[in-house]
């Protein structure tokens, strides 16, 4: 009896538990499926219509010297004096003496050649007298003067004396020029960019005493792509110069006005870039100097971009289309063609579209945009 109870009790308990669980499951209400809420993205937009725009052409270059010269003496000698203005960064005027070379040797040469000239002049006077005396003696002998040889009439001696006089004058002029060349002068208005001369140095024709950069004007060589070159009037000999604006990242608050004066006759064959030359007058005589070697950005006025829409650069997707919002607050894709870019904006022309202008263009499109998607406009 006890064995039967041990077997039946667990079976009864399991059967009761199974029956209770089955009833509980059957009484559970069925699960109802819920649709996820529809997310309507909020978009930033700009309203645009096709207009004529005039974005300038932006290019860049480095300021170069218009004239730059290395001072080398034309005579040799010891440097006896260096001007106080012959210092790096100082401005000098044309003709200003920067250094002085010892003139002793050249003054000695001038004195010697002057003495030689005096002697040659005396010799010439003597030969003139002898030549006249020879002519008189020949005529007094009863012979025709035409039968006398030039040597008898001392004509070669007279020509030699005249040649000596000419040679002495040339030697004196060279000695005087050498004395003048001992004064090293600035060839033009300039600023000193380098100086090697010091008192006591020996200067020769191979010596470099310093480097001067002209202050009258400077040049900037500016590259233009074929697209940029097509939008401006390239300067030439028959067209007037065009004013452009220069800025530099080293002096953000400064602006300079330069003139576009000429176009280089050769185009770079590797990338078809054409170079134009701009000039700026007196780059150092300004409140904001523009030193040689400064990197500058150049803004060049350009021709109009007709019938174009200006949108943020990011609004143009894959350089192929934009997203616009309809009156029903749905998205529509419109084909677009880039014409020009400037300072983060793209100038585009739209393809065929049923939307009337002005267009409500999404300025920051998302990657999950689809045609017909519902959106709402940001405030």
How would you describe what is shown here?
The chain is α+β, with helices and mostly antiparallel strands. The chain folds into 4 domains: 45-53 and 306-377, conserved putative lor/sdh protein from methanococcus maripaludis s2 fold (Beta Barrel); 70-100 and 183-213, RNA polymerase II/Efflux pump adaptor protein, barrel-sandwich hybrid domain (OB fold (Dihydrolipoamide Acetyltransferase, E2P)); 104-181; 214-300, Beta Barrel (Elongation Factor Tu (Ef-tu), domain 3). It has helices at residues 2-27, 104-140, 155-181, 226-231; strands at residues 42-43, 45-48, 51-53, 57-65, 68-71, 77-82, 91-92, 97-101, 183-185, 190-195, 202-203, 210-214, 217-224, 242-248, 251-263, 274-281, 295-300, 305-312, 321-325, 331-342, 345-350, 359-362, 376-377. It has a 6-stranded antiparallel beta barrel with strand order 4-13-16-15-14-17. A 5-stranded antiparallel beta sheet has the order 3-18-21-20-19, with no helix packed on it. A hairpin with a 5-residue loop joins strand 19 and strand 20. The longest helix is centred in the N-terminal third of the chain and has 37 residues, at 104-140. The two termini are 86 Å apart. The mean pLDDT is 86.
